[in-house]
Amino acid sequence: MFQVTINEAQKKLIDLINAAMRGEEVFIMQNGEQVAQIVPVAKVKRQPQFGSAKGLIRMADDFDAPLDDFADYMQ
Does the pTM exceed 0.70? Predict the structure, then answer.
């Protein structure tokens, strides 16, 4: 656990951030009391929302119709 004053935190900010990212507790003190804590940001893993594209995708009526370019190959 790290406890540093505000002045020390200003000088060692990158080191304190790295320590927090490693999982260590980092507290910033003022007048002998904890006033702030540096913690890593937890990444939020988003779950897919099924049906969220409903109405956004349209399939043409002739989607599976043969293409004119391939008429010679289809006999």
Answer: no
